[in-house]
Write a structure and sequence with these properties.
It is a single chain. By secondary structure, this protein is α/β, with parallel strands linked by helices. The protein is built from 13 helices and 16 strands. The chain starts with 8 loop residues before the first strand and ends with a helix. It comes from Equus przewalskii (Przewalski's horse). Its EC number is 2.1.1.214.
Length: 460
């Protein structure tokens, strides 16, 4: 597909965290708002400056109303590898596209943004003065300008080797800022109800964006915990629902996870969390239920399933079982009692999750979940697959030197049929996939080795 002309070019200033998550988030949001990710930029590794072609300013603004990975977006008027190249680029930009923002009745200001270098005020003024050739006719207003323009300079990524001259220089009209403030305003530290594994606010919003959650969607979390992922989806206008096998967590009972608090209070629950942020109207319900035995009638109910299954580290992996499944040597329970302490292997958990998503998601709906991996053994073939689900993205977040978790995003592309129930377990991959079951042992073996190494170093 041919790239649109320079008039459609925008510059994204990205945040420098969760680097692997940034590109899938921007692609998902552009797709959500009717755009398409188009760029001639080769890589998007660690650079905070991305040049994109976006169909309209409206789509650019909608993108920034959602993203937590991008700081700001600018309509790009010029770009060069030096100041001289930038000036030539600006002189070739059509004057008729500048005039609406530079006429005599307008007010404006110019901001200087440098990455990996600090400029003096004198250097900043010098750079602004060098832009006098642009047809500015309005008045400068530093407090409340109608239009803001930015000169952005990129001095690379190495703070120990800062070049004298920038690698790239950009100039553009500021359009909008992203939603970075959500990370602080929804911080888990300020939340009414939390648990041992409550999801970081920033990652919760990233997951909702990867899932293309939008207004009036129905979003489900089968391992809901304290409901952190429901909050992010509800913030974007989706109705939220969840289940969890832990009765105490669902009902907000038992020991508190907060420091200096022994027991949970009378109103510490998921509904109260949504009420805290003015989102209670989006709360459908949360039930005590076993993800290995979903109680749903056949049908497509959900626009997105966004979840963080337990890995067996801080929270145990459990499922309910029948009398026949009780291991030998374990005392039989009364007929009326269903034990909840049976082991639920990670491989079984993820197969159940994918099957459930394939059955209950609408076509085009997305499944977003975390997959824990032991990094020395990880290969892409270990990621679960399903004939009804297409892999959209696979992003790594490191947990330790030897473990990580991968944020997997999948989209339903085919209607579920009964024969799809187990067809996604090819014999040659089953052994690879069973490796997830020993994640807990590998995690703690690594922790034990690290502690032993540290103790040895301290004794030397």
């Amino acid at each position: 597909m041919a790239l649109p002309g320079p008039l459609n070019r925008y510059l994204l200033l990205m945040a420098q965290e969760h680097l692997e998550f940034r590109l899938p988030e921007i692609k998902s949001l552009l797709s959500l708002f009717g755009g398409q990710f188009i760029s001639n930029q080769g890589t998007y590794g660690k650079s905070p400056f991305w040049i994109l072609s976006i169909p309209s300013e409206e789509i650019a603004r909608n993108l920034m109303k959602r993203t937590v990975c991008a700081k700001s977006i600018f309509e790009l008027w010029g770009h060069g590898r030096s100041s001289e190249e930038l000036y030539r680029s600006l002189r070739s930009y059509p004057v008729e596209k500048m005039v609406p923002f530079l006429h005599s009745d307008s007010t404006y200001k110019i901001k200087i943004h440098t990455f990996n270098k600090t400029l003096t005020q004198e250097e900043k003024v010098k750079r602004i003065d060098a832009l006098e050739f642009l047809p500015f006719e309005g008045k400068v207003n530093l407090k409340k300008p109608q239009h803001i323009f930015s000169l952005l300079e990129d001095y690379g990524l190495d703070p120990n080797c800062i070049p004298e001259n920038p690698h790239n220089v950009y100039f553009g009209r500021w359009i909008a800022d992203g939603q970075r403030e959500l990370i602080e305003s929804y911080s888990v530290k300020k939340r009414h109800f939390i648990g041992n594994t409550s999801m970081d606010a920033g990652l919760s919003f990233i997951m909702a964006n990867h899932g293309k959650v939008k207004e009036n969607d129905i979003v489900f979390d089968p391992f809901v915990g304290t409901g952190g992922l429901l909050i992010a989806s509800a913030h974007f206008g989706a109705y939220v629902y969840g289940t969890d096998i832990d009765y105490n967590t669902v009902h907000g009972l038992g020991k508190a996870s907060r420091k200096n608090q022994k027991w949970r209070g009378p109103d510490e629950n998921i509904r109260a969390n949504l009420r805290q942020y003015g989102l209670e109207k989006y709360y459908l319900d949360v039930l005590v239920s076993d993800a290995s035995k979903p109680s749903w009638r056949k049908g497509t109910y959900f626009d997105a399933i966004i979840t963080d299954p337990p890995y067996g580290i801080r929270e145990s992996t459990r499922r309910t079982g029948s009398q026949k499944e009780i291991p030998k040597g374990m005392e039989k329970c009364p007929e009326s009692h269903v034990p909840v302490s049976l082991s639920y292997h990670l491989s079984d958990m993820f197969f159940d999750l994918l099957n459930f998503a394939a059955e209950t998601l609408v076509l085009g709906g997305r499944l977003v979940y975390w997959l824990p991996v032991y990094t020395p053994e990880y290969i892409e073939e270990m990621v679960p697959s399903h004939p009804c689900l297409k892999l959209i993205s696979n992003c790594e977040q490191k947990l330790s030197s030897h473990t990580s978790r991968r944020l997997i995003t999948m989209e339903k592309v085919k209607k579920f049929e009964n024969r799809d129930q187990s067809s996604h377990l090819p014999n040659d991959h089953s052994l690879l996939y069973q490796g997830h079951n020993s994640f807990r042992e590998k995690y703690f073996s690594g922790v034990t080795k690290r502690i032993a190494k540290e103790e040895k170093s301290s004794q030397e």
